[in-house]
Specification:
Helix 2 packs across helix 8, helix 3 (55-67) crosses helix 8 and helix 4 packs across helix 8. 40% of the residues lie in helices and 9% in strands. The chain has a 5-stranded antiparallel beta sheet, covered by helices on one side. The relative contact order is 0.15. The protein is of the alpha+beta class. It has a domain at 83-167: RNA-binding S4 domain (Structural Genomics Hypothetical 15.5 Kd Protein In mrcA-pckA Intergenic Region, Chain A), CATH 3.10.290. Strand 1 (109-111) and strand 2 form a beta hairpin.
Length: 189
């Protein structure tokens, strides 16, 4: 999937050596550039795979973003960024989004002191996210937490094994190269 989208989707890092070659038996073949629809579809698929969301749930996020006032792209990215599994990943408590999703699904994450096992749980401003005390001893979590070079985005504040949401995420806070305009145009058809 990472080769199809042309970027590292799952945090594999240096393990992906053939990102510039699309998957398939024939590898690089002379092809025309994608159509407008094809470009929009690829962008939607890339974002879906990046956040680990299935089609039906992504459609719900897009419809909710289209129905709200304000910049639709900002609203869509805010909904995706405020998912609990993504917030755990952005706080640096897990090495990848799938690992963060597993932490949440197995009940190792608390929101405002309550255990939450739903990866799509929407975090609000002022919510405090913390890991269960037994998870701070897990080797993979310990490596992620002790990584001093990692700094969370501006909308999050991390303090050891807990973090807090200071404000809603903006489009500038997203690190990955995402063309939200293409996704909105895809669902506006």
């Amino acid at each position: 999937m990472s080769r199809r989208e042309g970027m590292d989707l799952f945090g594999a890092g240096g393990k992906l050596t053939r990102l510039n070659v699309i998957p398939g038996m024939h590898g690089v073949v002379m092809r025309r550039g994608p159509s407008q629809y094809g470009r929009q579809l690829r962008e939607k698929q890339k974002v879906k795979r990046l956040y680990g969301i299935m089609e039906r749930q992504f459609v719900r996020y897009a419809k909710k973003a289209l129905a709200t006032r304000g910049n639709t792209g900002d609203v869509l990215l805010s909904l995706l960024e405020r998912r609990l599994d993504n917030v755990v990943y952005r706080l640096g408590m897990a090495s990848s989004r799938p690992a963060a999703r597993q932490l949440v699904g197995h009940g190792h994450v608390k929101v405002n002191g309550q255990r939450v096992t739903i990866p799509s749980y929407q975090i609000l401003v002022g919510d405090v996210i913390q890991l269960a005390s037994k998870m701070t001893e897990a080797p993979s979590v310990k490596v992620s937490i002790n990584n001093k070079s990692y700094t969370p985005p501006a909308w999050l504040v991390r303090d050891g094994v807990s973090g807090k949401v200071e404000k809603l995420p903006q489009m500038a806070d997203v690190i990955e190269p995402i063309s939200v305009q293409d996704i909105i145009e895809f669902y506006s058809r």
